[in-house]
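Posted in: Protein Modeling Q&A

I'm a second-year student putting together a small comparison for a lab meeting, and my supervisor asked me to include a predicted structure for DUF4349 domain-containing protein. I've never done this before, so apologies if this is the wrong subforum. The sequence is pasted below exactly as I got it from our records. If anyone can share the structure token output, I'd also love a short note on what stands out.
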Amino acid sequence: MEIKVQKKKAIEILEECRDKVFSDEFNQIAWKAETIEHLNEIFNTEDKGHKIDNFVFRSPFSKTNSPEYINYRKITAQKLIQSYIDIIKTHVDDAEVDEGNKFQQEIFQLNVDISRFQSENTQLQIKTQSLQNLNQTIEIELNVAKNKIKHLEENTVQLTGITLEKLWLLLKRLPIVQLWGLITGVFAVLGLIYWFGTLTIVHN
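Accepted answer (user: helix_wrangler)
Welcome! Here is the predicted structure, written out as tokens:
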């Protein structure tokens, strides 16, 4: 079996892909694209494809994938990459690789670096989007708080230094039902005072 790169280098690259599965920066879309690219560069089987082409981390039959299921699929992905590593270790000899083709090796290394940079850029974009979403949420909450404060200020009458103007402003802000209730209560109190007054005069 022949591969396009040095046996040791191929194993190192695939081991790095395998170990990324459970890293904190793991992104399944970026990881899959990067891994397929590495497999194509190592085995030169772009026309045949790889088993990982159709590999998914989430079930297409369930909208809610549990952490246990995702973890199970990650372990499966690691085993799949390990199978490629085992194939290289078992069926590839160092002598089968053209050690003198430095130009090809340099191109391969550049492609590896580009893939890594693209993966890091994807992670950076994800973090940036997350921070932007958080910033938007904070701004929305701040605006809601400001509107509540403004509403309270507009609908609050200071009790100190009450004037007829402030009293009239307070009455205008009362709902109709409460306003009529207040007027009715005032007239009821005035009527009660008048009744007590007339009753006292009669007795005297």
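A couple of things worth pointing out for your meeting: DSSP finds six helices and no strands in the chain. The chain has a mean pLDDT of 76.
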